[in-house]
Amino acid sequence: MAAKRLGGGAWRAGSRSIRGVDRCAPAGGKPSAGGRRSSPPAGSRGTHRRCARGAGMTSLDEQAERDLARMQEARAAKAKAPAKAGKGGKSPAAEAARARFVNTLSEAMGRPGVYWIGTAQDRGTGETMEAEPQWVCSPLSVAALTRDAAGNEWGRLLVFPDRDGQEHRWSMPMSMLAGSGEELRAELLRQGLEVTTIATRRGKLTEYIGQARPEAKARCVLRTGWHDGAFVLPMTTYGEHPGEPVIFQGATADGVALATAGTIEAWREQVARPCIGNSRLVLALSAAFAGPCLGLLDAEGGGFHLRGSSSSGKSTALAVAASVFGPPAYMRTWRATDNALEAVASLYSDLLLPLDEIGQLDPRNAGSAAYLLANGQGKSRSHRDGSARAAARFRLLFLSAGEVGLGDLVTASGGKSRAGHEVRVIDVPADVEGGCGIFEHLPDDCAPGDFADRLKRAASEHHGHALREWLTALTADASTARDHLRAHRDRLADALCGEGAAGQVRRVAQRFALAAAAGELATVKGLTGWPAGEADNAARVCFAAWLRSRGTDGAAEPAAMLTQVRLFLAQHGEARFSPWRDADESHKPRTINRAGFRKGRDDSGGLAYYVEAEVFRAEVCSGFDARQVARTLGLAGALRLDSNGGFTRRERLPDGRKARVYVILPELWSDDGDEDSEGGE
Q1: Chain-centroid distance, C-alpha 106
Q2: Do strands 352-356 and 397-402 pair parallel, antiparallel, or not at all (unpaired)?
Q3: Which of 202, 587, 590, 639 has the most CB atoms at less than 10 Å from its CB?
Q4: Contact, 184 vs 171, CB < 8 A?
Q5: By three-state DSSP, how is residue 644 classified?
Q6: Which residue in 18, 21, 15, 19 sits closest to 1, CA to CA?
Q7: Angle, nearest 10°, between helix axes 314-322 and 279-290?
Q8: What is the DSSP string of 444-477?
């Protein structure tokens, strides 16, 4: 693959990187052709490389040599008396005087860095002379101009070494120059650039960056993930992009702890391979590989939630999944506001977002958080002038864990758990048979807690390499990978679902099947060390556990409606429904806040409830459409219809009134058979 030149360095295919300047150059000038180049260490925090010290660092390019020659000439001329006049009566030093920036790695000017060389009037001769150079910051090169595909979001690609000699590359949004530059300086200082502490010189840093005009240009993107065949990470781009190089641009170079440690071989042997036989661990790792496949397949986002008892190993599954991408710091928690969660999600686009402790999530925000992460679109906001601002967009798969499910949180806040919630956040029972938490298979003579600690320790020591290998494999032949993943996903999803499965169940099966397809392909690529079929089997086991917990492979709403009606009658049947035969007996206790009447059926036993129409709509069906609830009751044979098939009947009630009521029959409880099951294994 042909290499592209950008900013004086090489644009490498596969893991693309823009190399910066390692020779002295003026602002916006070209770097020296003789600069040394080396690959940045894989997975390092920030994109950087080791800069050589010694002779290579002190050699100057031609422009810098001319700049130094002018300064030396100016100093020598000033020391001479009288100075020899040049053209127009000016001394050579005066003729050479011009304000400019110089970026040098040489120590000839005192210390390497960016210098501002201004001009001043000589008090003796009145001539304009060059002033003493003012140090602005350590060496900093502006390697390329950046902007998005629409010609907006302009920026500058900055390249600089830190004190350890590590080279950093950061695509800086030009909007950071709009103010005083404090935010810009803070970020550069955080990454290791040295900046002058003299207040009057600090503004020169923004001036230096702002006036630079490098020849190289690149396309910038504001989110990670797939962009026209290339996969963009904050510091590296994988694959070939048609046209200009593509780089990530943001107000900070960090945000996602993508880093490497240890080796891929050790990770495979100590993290991935021990997961064999443990369906929840294999599902977690498969989900990690599935994250970067969402954009490739144009699949919808969503998540898996491991719900189980405390200390069952759920956090271990998250740590194992996170190790595909980086250290334990890659994991996040649910404890965040909607705005903060949106900002985090934007950083994890086309990746896996591990979220621990769902119990820390504000129950009032639980439902909206699920829709936010799964739908991939943030809140609509406006500019100060009232015009609409583009909403943040992202696409991710998330893996969550906690002792409660999303539906539990929603109902705890008085809300209604919707079928859309269960499709977006799939509750997978974490505890398996055997009493060992999430572990079905333990190494010999190893307790569950010890096994969990061993996996976490290995994930902390070896991580990050699997993502690099995975993205390299996917982008090497994206078309073939796409076809393979799609075929595998669709085939397994069809096998998981019965012919009569509802659409919601099929959508859930698709996500399990996608994780399995990614896990199997990663196995084929030699990343996991698993036997063929391991990821498929884990998906089948976990899907079956989810289906048992759900109780039906039909649509969730009808079951939820029937459950709610049963609950209302169970809670209020005695207190708010007057017995039919006692309605006219004045000596009987009066029913407070009556909802209707209850009447025994001699033929089959049980009670029929005559529910006042307003109570049915406002209370019994709270959160649902009343007509849909009535229709569901009718289909279940639990609602007595009128002669025209209507949902209400005009009845003469024991209190003498004639009113339309909903007559709910004892058959309501006849299909409640397996509802008591919790779906345990």
Answers
A1: 42
A2: parallel
A3: 639
A4: no
A5: coil
A6: 15
A7: 30
A8: TT--HHHHHHHHHHHHHHSBSHHHHHHHHHHHHT
Domains in the chain (CATH in brackets) are: 266-437+451-550 (3.40.50), 556-676 (no CATH)
SS3 content of the chain, % helix, strand, coil (to 5): 40, 20, 40
Residue 170 CA to residue 193 CA, distance in Å, equals 12
Provide the edge-to-edge strand list for the sheet that holds 246-248: 167-173, 155-161, 141-147, 217-221, 246-248
> What average pLDDT does the chain have?
82
Per residue in 537-563, pLDDT (tens digit) is 999 999 999 998 887 666 767 888 898
Rounded to an integer, the average pLDDT of 188-194 is: 96
Instruction: Please give the pLDDT value at position 227.
Output: 92
H helices of 291-433, where?
Answer: 294-297, 314-322, 338-347, 366-375, 406-412, 419-424
Q: For residue 41, give the 3-state DSSP assignment.
A: coil
pLDDT above 50 for 100: yes
Contact residues for 444 (Cβ-Cβ < 8 A; gap 6+): none
**Six token digits for residue 455:** 């996996």
d(Cα 461, Cα 454) in Å, to the nearest integer?
11
Which conformational region is residue 445 in: left (phi greater than 0), alpha (psi within -120 to 50 degrees), or beta? left
Query: Tokens standing for 533?
Result: 């079929």
Q: Given a cut of 60, is residue 15 above it in pLDDT?
A: no
User: How far apart are the C-alpha atoms of 220 and 222, rounded to whole Å?
Assistant: 7
Single-letter code of the amino acid located at 599: K
Is residue 437 within a helix (H) or strand (E), and if so which, with residue range?
none
- Least Cα distance to 174 among 135, 212, 223 occurs for 212
* Element (DSSP H or E) covering residue 6: strand 4-6
pTM for this entry: 0.72
Banded model confidence at residue 174, pLDDT cuts 50, 70, 90: very high
CA–CA distance, 173 with 147 (Å, rounded to integer): 9
Report the alpha-carbon distance of residue 629 to residue 606 in Å, rounded.
Answer: 21
> Could you tell me the pLDDT band of residue 1, with boundaries at 50, 70 and 90?
very low
Catalogue the E-assigned strands of 88-210: 100-104, 113-117, 119-121, 128-130, 134-137, 141-147, 155-161, 167-173
Q: In the block, which residue shows the tokens 């996608």?
A: 514
Q: Which helix (H) or strand (E) holds 488?
A: helix 478-496
Q: Could you tell me which residues come within 8 angstroms of residue 249 by beta carbon, excluding any fewer than 6 positions away?
A: 146, 153, 155, 171, 172, 173, 220, 221, 222
